[in-house]
């Protein structure tokens, strides 16, 4: 680390398993441990970390979402950089927005969630996640031309060369959709398992906080549509930014916060998803999209 030779490096405590210092940072930044009401904080990323509880008790789990929403494992996926498709709207055709409004190079996580939500609403995808090539005749003409079969691969064309400045065809494949289903199922299952472990139904949750460098940019409506997060009223869901980073900054400037981090880490009850008897059933169910 290129810092002052006399500098001290402090590491925040972990909770257990893969629930690490990020979760402690989120707890510090959101003050969930002080809340009189039950809240959920979901730090969405490759290793999603979820907190649920109030000042009375806190539970946490690690949701192995994988890197799909950060660009990996997606045919034309990329991180949220210049040229990434970050917003998608689908009506009678596809409308795209890119970061920096520069020519489209690929699609990042927020655009991916928008695209899947739009495909569901348009009838391009069914609730099981199948790209409905056989039923494309029911789609508006411009959308119909975008639903194709290449060999045995089902595809949806987001951008042809020239559209949104793209120099190559940008598509979502059937395998891309499956990767998103695995990712969103991990996050959704983690939240459901914590609710079950705590015995807290959805209507008893006062607020769902979306955290993380990625979580701050996703459309709440699209996240609800694909089932990435539970069907809470939109007014109960808010962005809290990169809460893990903010928690680290608090500890950097305050010894009191550093001591509080140690105390919080000891108080959080770790819930192992893999060891929970209902996990497999909940995970498989969450793979499907909501039938809206």
Overview of this protein structure:
This protein is α/β, with parallel strands linked by helices. 32% of the residues lie in helices and 19% in strands. It contains 8 helices and 12 strands. The protein has helices at residues 21-30, 109-122, 141-144, 174-198, 220-226, 243-253, 255-267, 279-287; strands at residues 39-43, 48-53, 58-63, 84-90, 94-98, 106-107, 147-150, 153-159, 170-173, 207-211, 237-239, 269-270. The strands form 3 sheets. Strands 11-10-1-2-3-12 form a 6-stranded mixed sheet, with helices on both faces. Strand 7 (147-150) and strand 8 form a beta hairpin. The protein is globular, with a radius of gyration of 20 Å. The mean pLDDT is 93.
Structural class: alpha/beta
**Count, helices:** 8
Average the pLDDT over all residues and give the rounded result.
Answer: 93
Cα end-to-end separation: 50 Å
Name the poorly predicted regions.
Answer: none
Helical content class: 25-40%
Q: Which strand order do you get reading across the main beta sheet?
A: 11-10-1-2-3-12
Number of strands: 12
Characterize the main sheet: 6 strands, mixed
> What pattern of helices and strands is seen along the backbone?
HEEEEEEHHEEEHEHEHHEH
Rg for CA atoms: 20 Å
Beta-strand percent range: 15-25%
Tell me the overall shape. Answer: globular
Descriptive terms for the model:
single chain; 292 residues; alpha/beta; 6-stranded mixed sheet; 3-stranded mixed sheet; 12 strands
